[in-house]
């Protein structure tokens, strides 16, 4: 059985995109307290099912697929730029395909403005009208208003007119930053984006027997199943290995693995994949905070998701990407890496930041191990010494050295030079990932 919290989330998800909701309405509709309704609406906001806007309320928005995550809804734009909605509130759930800055003549402006666009412009009321007629929303900068006729047209066409006190340049920068952040998030696939939901998951109950496992195994060809209570609370996992040599009438509860490894919706796919490799498992159950089974994710799902992400044409740059872009391999027999410190990698004093330095050493170590044909590796622990501060635009040389290597772990030593001056040292242990 689902909890009240889950039922409210399911109800919100079933609402048409664009519907307004309130705490009082949800409490009355679902016959729960206003506190329970409030917490569920906040969770729905975290899951990007709704968006709360001052003076408008909370509206149901479209939950975007990962491949389209760089698109923002007009509701999100309102929140980003602290805007006020002047008209067209019913269109806040729509997504914008591009934004156009109206710093040109009207006819030139309209050449670039089409359906799904957002025209960013000042107090040019004629431009507001033309944009709406072309199917675009309008963002008015400088805190200006528009005409009542334009507001009525926006309501009729369900295209928002938004006003903000910021200037055009600031607004464009803020929206660009939001899209850029979304591009970075697009790389970080979460389990909630790729998991198999409970209704499509084969499960066994703790009060069933090995015979039920064998029947389920024959009908689905799956080799592992989550074990749940009648309330769908996860209590174990059972695999083909667990039932070898067991009698049909033996209880599943006696042979299953209790307290199994589980993941949440917000666990990253990469993290789940690493966990599967380390633990030698092919299936991880997905649970909520109360331990109720939500679905499963398999090793095949992880591989498919990562392949899909790699095919995406656009990516935002994380600090890892920035560091990798500045790395150049020098030397053939002995691996050495040359690295240029850019302004983005410095702290408030203009010196190389601790985070960028740590990332650099991790990347160099992983690369050196790949050169030795040891596959992928993850840094497990490290001891780092900054001997001298490294200023921006310095060119560093990193020299990794393998001290000890076993089947699972590698200990490495690093020396970092700025010219001929030793500026840093580190000792790191890597865990090798089995293929």
TrEMBL record:
Transmembrane segments: none annotated. It holds the Pfam family 4HBT. Residues 256-318 form the CBS domain. The keyword Disulfide bond does not apply. Gene3D superfamilies: CBS-domain, Hotdog Thioesterase, HprK N-terminal domain-like, Winged helix-like DNA-binding domain superfamily/Winged helix DNA-binding domain. InterPro entries: CBS_dom, CBS_dom_sf, Diverse_CBS-Domain, DRTGG, HotDog_dom_sf, Ser_kin/Pase_Hpr-like_N_sf, Thioestr_dom, WH-like_DNA-bd_sf. Keywords: CBS domain. This is CBS domain-containing protein. It comes from Lysinibacillus odysseyi 34hs-1 = NBRC 100172. The lineage of its organism: Bacteria, Bacillati, Bacillota, Bacilli, Bacillales.
